[in-house]
Amino acid sequence: MILALAGLAAALQSAAPAEPPPYDHLAPKEMRKVIEACGFARVWVGRDKREILLVRVEDSSASDEQLICAAKAIDTTFYTHEFSPELAPRFAPIRAAVARPRQLAEARARFAKEPERGPPPERLPGESSLAVAKRIEAFCGAVAEGALVQSGDHIMLSGEWMARRFSTVDAMIVNAGTMGCLMQASVIADLQLSGPVED
Fold first, then answer.
1. Mean pLDDT of 156-184
2. Considering the entire predicted model, what is its pTM?
3. What is the pLDDT of residue 11?
4. Nearest to residue 149, comparing CAs of 190, 193, 186?
5. Which residue range forms the structural domain that includes residue 184?
6. CA 199 to CA 180: how far, in whole Å?
7. Of 106, 133, 161, which residue sits at a domain end?
8. Structural domain tally of the chain?
9. Rg (CA), the chain
10. What is the pLDDT of residues 107-131, one digit of tens each?
11. Which of 9, 116, 156, 184 allows an S-S link to 97, with CB 3.0 to 4.6 Å?
12. Of 106, 137, 171, which one is at a domain's C-terminal end?
């Protein structure tokens, strides 16, 4: 599985699009057919209680090829996903590997429109996650200071920063660009973010 995932990531990376791919607006019935065509039998597609578009797969077994097929099908849609407990741990890294080329293309396209920022940070050899996180904060501006904190081995969004910067609807609107910068600069630097965490 690890070798297969590494091979998938390398193949996808070499084929990263120069421009972000368009998103597909598939109705639930269409999306279900697409996922079933990947070889899954127990599929539900629709809106959950929060009115979020969801693909739910309840199969307990699947090949890597089936999971890759589903990840590619979901990637350029507005559907989130929920896989069975047996498949979720395998699907998550495959989903991330499939999504990364698109995320890179989207991030690079965004920053190409903001040349005044300069080039976004990229992780240096041997650089710690916290060090690159602080360079990302500096790149995204003064408002981003303190946004990223370390908790154990993970870099997370600071709960205190989130509460301070996103406490009202107006604040959310004003600071949305900073949040987008943090997220997309983290993609380019290959920094995995979790959170938020209370600090």
1. 92
2. 0.72
3. 45
4. 193
5. 115-197
6. 22
7. 106
8. 2
9. 18
10. 999 999 999 999 999 999 999 999 9
11. 9
12. 106
